[in-house]
Amino acid sequence: MTAFTDHLDLIGPDRTADGTVVAIVLVHNEANLLPAFLDHYRAAGASSDGIAFLIVDDRSDDGTADILAAAPDVTVLRPRDNSTYKEHKREWRSQALDRVAAGRWILAPDVDELLVWHGWPSRSLAELIGTLEAESAAALYTVMLDMYADAPLTDHVYHGGSLTDAFPFFDCPTLDPASTWMEQAPSRFRRNWPIPAMHVLGGMRQRLFSDEAPTAMARIARRLHRRWNHRPGSTAHVSAGLWRGLTRSRGAMPPLNLTKVPLVRWQTGLRFYGGAHAMNRVLPLGSERGVLLHFPITRGLEGLEYVTGRGQHADGSAYYRRLLGRAAVSPFYPGSRRLRSMSDLEQIFGTGGPA
Predict the structure, then answer these.
(1) d(CA 70, CA 76)
(2) Tens of pLDDT along 160-203?
(3) d(C-alpha 23, C-alpha 332), whole Å
(4) Structural domain of residue 338, as residue ranges?
(5) pTM of this prediction exceeds 0.90
(6) 355/83 Cα distance (integer angstroms)
(7) Does one domain contain both 103 and 120?
(8) DSSP states of 311-329
């Protein structure tokens, strides 16, 4: 093994110079998702050189390591014994990208996220990047979209094939305008993590986390907040604290942030907050949005119990513990819509993504 950063060792050859775009991914026991993940991003392409995958394998023992070792476009890193996902995931990403990706475009999705954009799949990643460069943009504003089946979470088990066939539904903002809403990030947060300043909140998991359905007042408040914050020159974010109070159901956990910036022209010294939810430096954002098709539950009850027991996610995997308590519930509801084509996402793609 060769030292790659302060926290990571290189396992096998370094192939990061082989692709136009570097995709950095952190994985642990993801053998069920890795083939579909790699196929999706390979098909997206960047140019004739494609994407170079830089994958941190966090002590997997389910066959993930064998999949990675057999992939000709993957560089494998492994954390050292004293380095953990819970404490050092930010350093894992940033230090590795500082080493190999300065000045290059990078992707930073989670392994359960498939990035799509307006015109995908006929419009390639290279064309999307060309649009961003023509606008002098250095990052893509992206919204996570939780995908699910019409079945209890215990039955959300992926057996291969198309992920969108296995989990075809999403919360549609047309059918339920209260399913997501937008707020300006708190000023204290923006001082350290300035982009994106506007966050999209809510989604399927937020519904399931709530002990009670949102009150009528909360639904009205969310609709008004969402409408006003999408108007040019809106000042609704001034009262973000009030809106948070109005829109949160009693007993619910803090709203989930669905906003990410997973496509970035990397600069040395950039840092992600947690995943790719925010960045520590102001970068110009493109005028369009991407969508991260997010598949949060793919191993049913066994997967929820494993992640909860491992406790490596935020607050000791508190969100997963909450989901585990709702494992017998189906996320399907009257606001669900089946994803049949990218045209179903036009309202979410939009234009002029907020900075």
Answers:
(1) 11
(2) 999 999 999 999 988 998 888 889 999 999 999 999 999 999 99
(3) 32
(4) 112-261+279-355
(5) no
(6) 34
(7) no
(8) --SHHHHHHHHHHHHTTTS
